[in-house]
Write a structure and sequence with these properties.
TIM Barrel; binds iron/sulfur cluster; 13 helices; two-stranded parallel ribbon; ten-stranded mixed sheet; DNA polymerase, domain 1
Length: 341
């Protein structure tokens, strides 16, 4: 059985052609799926009874609603979705004034093994389909309030490139949600072939998890530095024209005594200049069993001041959802325990 939700217009056209249905039926189905957001084939009332009966024989249409939701004192919500085989993923809804951002997961666990990340420490339990990614967006009660989507939850998006791009196609195409690509940001540890394809294939914003500008120090916390050194990643990004509306940002989680002194700020300036970009400094959230510490607020401020004074746009990210383990690097805190249920 084919899962209808998550199919692109092209997929739907191929399906209609195989079933000898008119080409325009594919557009009608896409409209029911992504604009009207129906959850049954019977509800597609401008399709003939015969077409609906045939679709029901070969396709399924469902949404998987969250299995759980935890609400932070600051209004952040962490939704938990069951993606089958007793595997769970987490999706974080972050309201902030006029903005409402959803942080989605693209894998169960992660292969990248960043030492500071709870998700990475849980190992890899599979990639999500486009259905699973889109379902996190469509199945939450706040769907119609969403202004931004960030692919910064569990997993490395460019290790699941096709499903991530399929989900982005649904979000940004006229036959889908019709969102501007500038409402979407995809974050990567720096998988160079994925970045190259992404820059070519869409116009969404890009975020790079940097965390340390010094090669051997970065390697000690991010194993992917060995395969894709940050200097090579940045050199490749400097070849791209960032003067348009597309944004490039670097995520820099600050660990006390590890990457937060001015020598790191100096190295960061040397690495990034003259790239047109922004650096987001992220306060590290302690979690059980981590050897990493939070950087003091005044240290973060001095670090930011140094970058700004040297021409690099920089912000300190507000901490959200820490009390429900929804903050950056804290997702999937107990996936194995849940998987054993
Ligand atoms: Fe994976 Fe991101 Fe965690 Fe690194 S920080 S292990 S890429 S989820």
């Amino acid at each position: 059985m084919t899962e209808l939700f998550g199919l692109s217009l092209q997929d739907l056209q191929a399906l209609c052609e195989a079933e000898s249905m008119p080409k325009f039926t594919a557009r009608q189905i896409a409209n029911w799926l992504y604009d009207k957001r129906v959850d049954s084939i019977d509800a597609m009332t401008n399709l003939s009874l015969k077409q609906r009966a045939r679709l029901k024989e070969i396709c399924t249409l469902r949404h998987t609603y969250p299995a759980d939701c935890q609400v932070s004192t600051d209004g952040t919500k962490k939704y938990i979705f069951d993606v089958g085989d007793r595997r769970l993923v987490e999706t974080v809804f972050i309201p902030d004034g006029d903005r409402a951002t959803l942080c989605v997961s693209c894998q169960v666990g992660c292969k990248m093994g960043c030492r500071f990340c709870v998700t990475g420490s849980q190992g890899f339990h599979g990639s999500l389909s486009a259905y699973d990614i889109l379902n996190q967006i469509f199945a939450i009660p706040e769907f119609s309030r969403l202004t931004n989507i960030v692919y910064m939850g569990m997993g490395e998006p460019f290790d699941n490139y096709d499903a991530v791009m399929r989900s982005i196609e649904v979000l940004t195409s006229g036959w889908g949600l019709g969102w501007s690509p500038h409402r979407i940001t995809v974050s990567t540890v720096g998988v160079v072939p994925g970045i190259e394809r992404f820059l070519h294939d869409c116009d969404c914003h890009l975020a790079i998890s940097l965390h340390n500008p010094i090669a051997d120090e970065r390697l000690s916390i991010m194993p992917m530095q060995k395969t894709y050194p940050i200097a090579k990643v940045v050199a490749m990004l400097k070849e791209y024209d960032w003067s348009g509306q597309r944004r490039l940002s670097f995520e820099y989680t600050m660990f006390g005594g590890l990457n937060d002194d001015l020598s790191h700020a100096e190295s960061l300036v040397r690495l990034l200049k003259p790239l047109h970009c922004r650096v987001n400094l992220i306060r590290f959230h302690t979690s059980p069993d981590t050897p990493f510490h939070t950087s003091p607020r005044n240290t973060m401020q001095q670090f930011m001041d140094y970058l700004v004074n040297h021409g690099i746009r920089c912000t300190i990210r507000a901490s959200r959802g820490e009390d429900i383990m929804a903050a950056c690097g804290l997702l999937a805190g107990s996936v194995p325990e849940r998987a054993e249920r």
